[in-house]
Amino acid sequence: MPITVRPTQPDIAIARVISRNTTPPTERAASILTWAADEHVVCALALGWWLRCRSKPEPRRLASDHLLVTALTASLVPHLLKLVFNQKRPDRLTVVGHLHGIPISGRAEDSFPSGHAIQVGAISSAASQLPEGERGIVRALGACLISTRVLLLAHWASDVVVGSTIGVLLERLIRCVTGYGRREQV
Fold first, then answer.
1. What angle do CA 77, 157, 87 make, to 5 degrees?
2. What is the model's pTM?
3. Which of 37, 132, 137, 156 could cross-link with 145 by S-S, CB 3.0 to 4.6 Å?
4. Is the per-residue pLDDT at 96 higher than 80?
């Protein structure tokens, strides 16, 4: 029997502000941006990177192995968690938002946790091995991408925060298997 998760008061307040103030052009832009954190896109990019790195030096191959395993695992985990947890999406509870054109996303009870945020949290965590400038770009882009999930009322803010945290923890656990980030690989 699934565990029901309820939005927090700050979640509700944020969703109300978004539903009252978000404009159709902002929603269209967010709808396009949000696809960059979709599990299918992230896995396809990770697979492409993995294939590209097959002829590269060993450290690059090992990093691409880790990234592919991380992306695939981060795609599976949200589906498993959504079997355990139920939470109604904010777009089902904020009628005013639909007057502005906010789309209805996914299954009504699949808000918690955000799968996009798990993907982004995992990839951002893996980016910790990149040079500082590149790491900052990955993290800033990731924050922008997952904020689209809140802006589109596909998720409560807490779904995104928890999803990102799960992604980071998941990537760090995967390091124990892949050996990614060990000093001798750098």
1. 60
2. 0.87
3. 37
4. no
